[in-house]
């Protein structure tokens, strides 16, 4: 292999802080503030990734906040601020890797185990940091001037401006506070609907238009820009305005259920049609889009791999200059060996075979090295936002499953192990890309690499501990129990724990493959082994209705249907028209007393990437997928590529609820209006640090944290939130004739605010 030659820019480069200068860097306050901000932004990234299947870089907002916080505490150095953003930015990458993969366990029919989630996050994060240590000099230093690392360069500019006296923290804080207030008024007080929706009715049966009017989605749309946001909306339009109505049109006359559904299409709501058919099409499209993006990057991948191998060899030399002082290679090799032992042990407790466990752990290390190298190189050329992490994870899981299939490992344990391999590699690749941006920032400002690498280990560790808990909390706080039956199906308890509902105790049965009309999931069974309820998770759930306890006499129209309540008693379903537009259903006893209200259940945490990973694993190892639907999705992605449209964002829009893509598009449209004023006269780095981007980062953090706080209040003080629900006393706010228009109007007011902020100072100027 030829020796790598430094670029001319690297040879003559001088950092902002000279290598011989000694400034405070790895201090107690820089570590503590970095840890706290990392947990906050990591938690908000979990929330965001569950909803829309993507995250946004946290480095610049954290750098801005760090400058302001330290300025309030007294004089600080640029290296302290850099250390804080280095530690804090790890949370977003760990969150992305975890949420893209781990929730697939729920979709396979297993519980979300906190210890497994945390250990997966820790091992993946540590592996990503370790492998980037020897690659730093090859990719960050020698390729300076060739690999731009746009987010890292923009973050360095923010830190340098802050050192010289500029600060834009008010933009981040302003967006955060406004989004927090907006979220409380909408989801806490219920002053307007969160999901305004319009069914097109007889004109196009099955078609619906909707929008989730949340501030965090508007912020995401502004940051990703009009092109990607528009493509996502187009995917959503295909799903909700073409595919679902088409299935309803051609399937309503069928007299038997159409595979893989268990009931007639004419009895399905649009959300049922989406769950049973369109999600498979969307998953096939997302998988193909990810693979296409990976194939397109193959020349870059091979180049990066060659550079990575050279970097490992070159890392043996000991650097003496402060700005070239990395952690030693024996630390890297020893850490990788220790991780192999830890991973082998954990996998052994799942698979029960030592040889298989050692093989799976070795695959994690090998795939991890390859894709961390690839991730770093790609983020250096096109930025973190375009880094095909999901495509790399798909490739990892595909290769893993094919290897398992070749050696005859196709059981449910092998499926869990395949997911574990993909999860750890996904987290490592995400951390590899983010670490590269941090190390680039450090290279430009004159940080000590060794200190940054230690900071990254700290950031990964603390964020992983918090992220596992946040994911479990969001799932548990939104989990519901809904009546379910499977005549003729006798179940046995497969978990040790029990659940008590309305004074009755049930055991838990895991369904890992479709059977007797039951989808994979967890179910409550009685002493006779009968299925009584589904435990529908908060993450990746499928039930669009929920039972809410209520009391009082009800007079309405008997539907002729019956349904069991949470007390396992059978009730009549009675409809009551609260307005000409709204009909509410109640579960009523023979005396006319209501016991439960049948409410709509929104599914805010669809976890699209995790659903994709589960689909691939099942498709290869069980070979029981509706491949016709999956192939439709695959060819949709291929068609979009042939038309010159990026397949992956289109496929993500096809998979996500239309309400999500519509809200993101509003943010992208505002970005388009702002960009028209600049006419492309700003650099990419300036655009990354622009006031609109910083304000949008605040909207994302504020909206996400607001959602987490409301979820926490629901668990610890649900009755208090009920008393705050203004819509209970003024139903017209959420159910009246103008409720949808009112919600859209408030959302547009928020958009006008974002536009005015971004237009007043479109790029990163001093304030």
Number of continuous helical runs: 25
Percent of residues in helices comes to 55-70%
Tell me the structural class: alpha+beta
User: Mean pLDDT, nearest integer?
Assistant: 84
In what range is the share of β-strand residues? 5-15%
Shape: globular
Radius of gyration from CA coordinates:
26 Å
Unreliable stretches: 762-767
| Total DSSP E strands | 12
Largest sheet: 5 strands, antiparallel
The span between the termini is 50 Å
Widest beta sheet: strand line-up: 3-7-6-5-4
In a nutshell, what does this entry contain?
The protein has 767 residues and is an alpha+beta fold. The chain has helices spanning 8-11, 28-52, 59-73, 78-101, 104-107, 114-141, 150-163, 169-188, 215-251, 270-296, 298-314, 329-351, 354-382, 389-406, 412-445, 449-478, 608-621, 627-642, 647-655, 658-678, 684-688, 691-724, 726-729, 732-735, 739-760, and strands at 197-199, 208-210, 480-483, 498-501, 504-511, 521-525, 531-536, 545-549, 557-564, 570-579, 582-588, 594-600. A five-stranded antiparallel β-sheet has the order 3-7-6-5-4, with no helix packed on it. A five-stranded antiparallel β-sheet has the order 8-12-11-10-9, with no helix packed on it.
């Amino acid at each position: 292999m030829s020796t790598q030659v430094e670029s001319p820019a690297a040879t003559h480069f001088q950092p902002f802080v000279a290598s011989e200068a000694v400034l405070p860097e790895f201090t107690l306050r820089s570590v503590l503030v970095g840890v706290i901000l990392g947990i906050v932004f990591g938690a908000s990234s979990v929330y965001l990734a569950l909803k829309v299947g993507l995250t946004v870089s946290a480095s610049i907002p954290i750098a801005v906040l760090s400058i302001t916080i330290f300025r309030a505490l007294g004089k600080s150095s640029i290296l302290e601020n850099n250390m804080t953003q280095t530690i804090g930015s790890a949370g977003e990458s760990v969150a992305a890797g975890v949420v893209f993969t781990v929730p697939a366990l729920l979709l396979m029919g297993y519980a979300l185990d906190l210890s497994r989630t945390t250990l997966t996050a820790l091992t993946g994060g540590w592996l990503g940091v370790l492998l980037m240590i020897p690659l730093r000099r090859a990719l960050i230093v020698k390729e300076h001037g060739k690999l731009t690392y746009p987010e890292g360069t923009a973050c360095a500019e923010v830190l340098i401006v802050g050192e010289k006296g500029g600060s834009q923290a008010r933009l981040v804080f302003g967006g955060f506070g406004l989004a927090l207030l907006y979220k409380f008024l909408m989801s806490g007080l219920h002053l307007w609907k969160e999901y305004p929706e319009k069914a097109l009715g007889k004109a196009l049966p099955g078609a619906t238009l909707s929008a989730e009017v949340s501030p965090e989605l508007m912020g995401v749309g502004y940051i990703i820009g009009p092109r990607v946001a528009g493509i996502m909306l187009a995917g959503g339009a295909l799903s909700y305005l073409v595919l679902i109505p088409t299935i309803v049109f051609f399937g309503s006359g069928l007299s038997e259920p159409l595979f893989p559904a268990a009931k007639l299409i004419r009895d399905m709501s649009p959300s049922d049609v989406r769950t049973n058919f369109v999600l498979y099409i969307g998953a096939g499209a997302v998988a193909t889009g990810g693979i296409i993006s990976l194939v397109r990057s193959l020349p870059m991948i091979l180049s990066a791999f060659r550079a990575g191998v050279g970097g490992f060899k070159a890392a043996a030399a000991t650097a003496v200059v402060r700005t070239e002082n990395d952690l030693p290679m024996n630390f890297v090799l020893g850490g990788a060996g220790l991780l192999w032992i830890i991973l082998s042990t954990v996998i052994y407790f799942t698979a029960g075979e030592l040889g298989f466990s050692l093989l799976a752990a070795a695959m994690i290390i090998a795939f991890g090295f390859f894709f961390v190298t690839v991730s770093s190189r790609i983020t250096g050329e096109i930025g973190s936002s375009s880094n095909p992490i999901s495509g790399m994870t798909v490739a990892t899981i595909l290769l893993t499953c094919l290897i398992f299939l070749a050696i005859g490992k196709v059981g449910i344990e092998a499926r869990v192990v395949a997911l574990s391999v993909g999860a750890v590699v996904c987290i490592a690749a995400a951390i590899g890309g983010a670490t590269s941006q941090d190390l680039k920032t450090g290279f430009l400002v004159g940080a000590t690499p060794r200190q940054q690498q230690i900071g990254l280990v700290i950031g990964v560790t603390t964020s992983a501990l918090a992220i596992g808990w946040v994911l479990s909390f969001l799932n548990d706080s939104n989990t519901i129990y809904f009546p379910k039956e499977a005549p003729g199906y006798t179940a046995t308890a497969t978990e040790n724990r029990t659940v008590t509902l309305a004074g009755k105790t049930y055991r838990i049965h895991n369904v890992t493959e479709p059977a007797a009309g039951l989808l994979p999931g967890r179910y409550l069974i009685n002493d006779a082994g009968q299925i009584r309820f589904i435990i529908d998770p908060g993450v990746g759930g499928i039930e669009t209705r929920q039972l809410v306890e209520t009391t009082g006499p009800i007079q309405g129209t008997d539907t002729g249907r019956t349904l069991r309540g949470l007390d396992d008693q059978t009730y009549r379903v009675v409809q009551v028209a609260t307005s000409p537009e709204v009909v509410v259903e109640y579960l009523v006893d023979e005396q006319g007393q209501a016991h439960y209200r049948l409410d709509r259940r929104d599914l805010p945490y669809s976890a699209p990437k995790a659903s994709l990973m589960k689909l691939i694993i099942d498709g290869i190892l069980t070979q029981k997928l509706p491949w016709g639907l999956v192939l439709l999705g695959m060819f949709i992605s291929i068609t979009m590529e042939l038309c010159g449209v990026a397949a992956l964002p289109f496929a993500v829009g096809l998979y996500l609820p239309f309400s999500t893509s519509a809200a993101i598009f509003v943010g992208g449209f505002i970005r388009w209006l702002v960009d028209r004023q600049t006419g492309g006269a700003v650099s990419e780095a300036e655009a990354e640090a622009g006031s609109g981007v910083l304000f949008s980062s605040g909207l994302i953090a504020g909206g996400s944290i607001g959602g987490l706080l409301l979820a926490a209040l629901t668990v610890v003080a649900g009755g208090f939130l009920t008393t705050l629900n203004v819509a209970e006393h003024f139903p017209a706010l959420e159910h009246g004739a103008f409720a949808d228009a009112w919600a859209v109007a408030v959302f547009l007011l928020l958009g006008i605010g974002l536009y005015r902020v971004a237009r007043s100072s479109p790029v990163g100027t001093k304030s």
